[in-house]
Amino acid sequence: MVARTSARLGKIGHLAELLGRVPPAEAEIAIAYLSGELPQRQIGVGWRTLQDVPEPRQVATATLAEVDERLTAIKAQVGPGSHAAKKASVAELLGGVTRQEQTFLLRLLHGELRQGALEGVMIEAVAKAAGVPAAEVRRALTVRGWLPAVGAAALAGGVEALRGFTLEVGRPVAPMLAQSAADVAAALAKVGVPAALEWKLDGVRIQVHKSGGTVAVFTRTLDEITSQVPEVIEAALTLPAREAVLDGEAIALRLDGRPEPFQVTAARVASRTDVASARATTPLTAFFFDLLRLDGRDLLDLPGAERFAALEASLPASLLIPRLVTDVPAEGEAFFRDAVRHGHEGVVVKSLAGPYAAGRRGAGWVKVKPRHTLDLVVLAAEWGHGRRQGKLSNLHVGARDPETGGFVMLGKTFKGLTDALLTWQTARFLELAIGPTDSWVVTVRPELVVEVAFDGVQRSPRYPGGMALRFARVLRYRPDKRPDEADTVDTVRALMP
DNA sequence: TTCCGACAGTGGGGTCGCAAT
DNA sequence: ATTGCGACCCCACTATCGGAA
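ok -> structure tokens follow
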């Protein structure tokens, strides 16, 4: 019903009505499921485990609490034999529910609920069901980070219960996100001048919580990585502040201070088995750009300029992100070019006045990155899902190889396509198809040239040229260009770091 | 009435750790 | 030893709704 209702207010109404009927003990589970999440977060079940689903039952027997218990048990199945055990448990669970419930559970477990109601809509639904302002729910969520818990509290105790949620050292806060802009001038126009510009480092976002001698480190998705980043812990422990919540970036730097490719930083942070040797070969450096709490005082609602002043006063300069405050666009442009010249991703332009909008992609922060483009050739396309069902969506694109006269695939992209373009390209690809068109991938004669934008070229173990484009997106088709006028692999190779 | 902010959806490449083969 | 799978690090972009202007 929620999925069938396209109007957002309609969805909110349906969800609120549903929440009003859920027993209090199951409210948390209901809110989690309806917004596409599991209380267990991950349970080690993916698409493979969800194949070969048994026939559902005619009548419902399972309660939400029982399903939740079973999922907890499935998560706990680890070690030898766990694949088969998980598969059996999942089959048992799915075989014990009705067809409707099974469909819902399958989508939930796949992580593709697709009913147009994730956290943003659920916040409104919780507010409506509990009879509280949505702003109160949002505020509690920013400091608690887990809507089902916040929602259950709101349903049980109203505004008073929501007011009980405060920033707690040791529990991560949803990090503030940034919008993007094409250039520094556009970014300055969005946030207003004067504004702060900071280097955008191509590393891993870190939120560091220090309380006395205890330090915890979390990622953008609030996963804890404390044990993987001892350098960050040591840095936090040297700070004079007794208690602090810091926002920043961890990145692997080379000896000359230039950044390693993102792949290197990501691999380092992901390494858990031998952190000491990983650290010896690939040390991490932490840079901080925000301070959310300092010695018992919450700073979230302070203007950006004040938060940074507090940060500056609490950290050695070596831990601070390089930053410039200006109202002159040309100075901002120069700072941006300098960041790129140092090998970094670009800059983030920040409002001096705005609060720390936890969990929001507010207009207070705007990122600017340089953009590369290439004219590439479409080699194949994949059939889309969901709202792209029936449309050839995901393009395989390649560069010309002057040696062989053929084309070398550099990656896939589905971004930047409008509905009209999807319709057009589906028809065009079917005309150009080589071989079957009902297969997952439809191979086409390499005749269409497409202009693709991307952030950079990275080493690839997957593609024959050993290179792949990062964040490729379609800008437009180039009907004025023939495939033999497309860019070559040599051009791409020259862009490798 | 038009504009624009926020949200949801549609997927991308790379890497690690673990279990299965 | 290698492969398959799940999880998660980075992410861009369009369509849509509904409140703001």
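The CA atoms of residues 126 and 314 of chain A lie 39 Å apart.
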